[in-house]
Amino acid sequence: MPTAFQDGAYPDDVVQKGHPTTTAKPRERAVLVGIERPGAEWGLASSLAELERLAFTAGADVVGTATQKMSSPNPATFVGSGKVQEVRELAVANEADVVIFDDELTPSQQANLERAMPESMKVIDRTALILDIFALHAKSKEGRLQVRLAQNQYLYPRLRGMWAHLASNRMGGGVGSRFGEGESQLEVDRRIVRNRITSIRRELKTLARVRSQQRSSRYESGVFKVALVGYTNAGKSSLLNALCASDVYSDDLLFATLDSTTRRLTLPEGRESTLTDTVGFIQKLPTTLVEAFKSTLDEIGGADLLLHVVDASSPDHLQQIDSVNDVLHQIAATDKPRILVFNKADLLEADVLDAMTRRYPEAHFASSLTGFGTDALVNAVSVAAASRDARMSVLIPFERGDVASLAHRRCHVVTESYTEEGIEMSVRVPSELRGRFERFAR
Fold first, then answer.
1. Second label for 84, Cα 20 to 30 Å away, from 17, 122, 303, 344?
2. Within 13 Å and on the Cβ side, how many CA atoms surround 225?
3. 154-184: b or e for each residue (b if 16 or more CB lie within 10 Å)?
4. What is this structure's pTM?
5. CA distance 260 to 249
6. Residue 118 — φ and ψ, nearest 5°?
7. Phi-psi region at 59: left, alpha or beta (left = phi > 0; alpha = psi -120 to 50)
8. 3 state SS of 213
9. Residue range 56-105, pLDDT digits in tens
10. Degrees (nearest 5) of the Cα angle 213, 214, 216?
């Protein structure tokens, strides 16, 4: 499994002592570990199934699974001491390369678990796995910087645990084991990571200013802005392609695309709008990623309308909707106008589709693969765009063809006729453009 910072190197080449670099393999072998807690929103089976998909996306095949019923994680080793030994035996018996825990481990838990496993075996958690996938799929400079920032923020509090593990292995207990090379090198590594975080934030701030200027230009243009949000692998990129006749990369993988992509969407009356695909969400989304991807997620905050895309075929669609709502709350975007879109409707049996349609009467059901429901969805976007417009009657002189063109591109022209004095229009005008038409009002 390609790893961003667990496989022998910290982000940005901070050397991780005691964790030798392994030879790359086509596929690694993984053991998954999860705990079943009473009242958990996600069932353990669903959560581990998703963790297996994450592992597969990162390049690992699951060869074993260990679970335990607990009211709360063990503060020292996440699972009980007996279960730790069972996990070790399971991993060794299946020649596993990595043990993946279904929740984020504390630095001390990770250090204790690494001590309990064979030295060559990696121990990572769900957060590290998600960060690893983001590192694999980030393509743009901003995306790569955002992932590096999240990696370093995740790494920083774990340095002490890593060095404590090393020092004990190297020097043993007793007098003289409390200080020495490990402690001094720990401070060096901490300073390097802190400097990296500062440097990356500075670069991201510069890129954010550029993105903000581009966004401001779009906002001032009067173009109606729509953003796709949803759980990872709900089919947002495929839906973007279906609605905009574009060829944005999409794949049946978790987090196949990370960088936001904007395409032109022409509404039925000829009016232009924009449709932006954004990074997918997931349960237990690392807070470091939410912070690091803030400038990308600002695309959601700046949209006039959100299309909340849900995988209609997923048995966990209710939990996925809740997870998306949680992230929207984190980025203060819950008050945005929203249309619920159940994608992949072609995968549903007719009776299931009928039942879901009755259960969600306000939602739209569509298939980016077959085109089912996409026309109705575009019409719904058109209605939402028109709802914030003001109806105006204008007379535009023939020499002001630029204003007439603007009306056709950015507004909804209801009626149009030609007179000796110019072009008479009844037009629905967005609030941002009202000043451009007021001088021609009749």
1. 17
2. 22
3. bbbebbbbbbbbbbeeeeeeeeeeeeeebee
4. 0.76
5. 12
6. -55, 150
7. left
8. helix
9. 999 999 999 999 999 999 999 999 999 999 999 999 999 999 999 999 99
10. 60
